What we know:
- By secondary structure, the protein is an alpha+beta fold.
- It has two domains: 206 residues, no CATH class; 49 residues, no CATH class.
- It has nine helices and twelve strands.
- The longest helix has 21 residues.
- About 4% of the residues have low confidence.
Amino acid sequence: MAVLHGSWHPQTQQFWIWGEAWQPLKAKSTMTWEVAAHPRTLGAKAFKEWLQSLGKNGQLSAETAAAITKGKLRTFAIALPTVDQAHSPLLAAEPVSEETGGKTFLQNWWITGLALEIGPAIAFLRELPLAQGESRGEARVFGEELRYWSHVTRWGLDLVARSKAVPSLLPQFDGTVRAQWWPVLESEADQLRLDRLGRQMPTVCRFYQDQTPPQVKVESASRTRSTKIRTRKFNPPNVELPLAPNRLVQHFLAQVVDLDMRRVMGTLPLPGARRVAARSRGGVSTTLAIAPTVKDWLVQLGSARGLCESGLADIRLV
């Protein structure tokens, strides 16, 4: 039986998902000085077919299953506890016990999965049940880290319902400016909730690496010879330091609140716009004078793109 895993990757601002299925190892692997492929991850074709089956058997809606299978196929690295003797990663649901604790070490493994944008990721996570289903005889399909992120998305919806968000301007490296919404966590209850979620974060969420598999290049041996030489960049199995859990929660929560607030703002008129009753049928729509740069900012707060047409220099003059 396969289990669906995934977590938020702040470097790419995508939610990565992948499937893990127990299967006997074909042969005992040996220690290498490069990152190896995870021996129990589902391949690209099998993974997409399995996701579609979740929509057919009712564990996901057909719309959500179709949306997440459209994610970008990619290969990424995760640092997982690895058994020293067999040199194979522990199953994601298998805890590191006292017996295996001294025989394991942390190592990167290549995973084949899908990268979801924030919109499909939120829709997928909010559809997951909050409670495990093993007590009702249901098979364990969704990993604990997915249920964890599902709680975070619901917290974001709660913040939007309580108007705990403020608009801002976020300068980009290319000189443009993006209208952005940020969550407001000034209350004691929200601060306690953030600390609790940071402590409860599954450890694997912090070890998704910012690495890409090496590319094989084919180059000519010389200008006069047609012989080709295949070269590959050496990829050592170094493990990056884990991210702070509270920062990881805040980064994902900001994306959730930003998307939800844009959907709300897209349905509202601009500040100052009002309808004035008239003798004729209908009425007259009037808008108070708003500076072009301010109007641009307000419009982009409700758009999916969010990039202001005004440059950073123009906004500084307002």
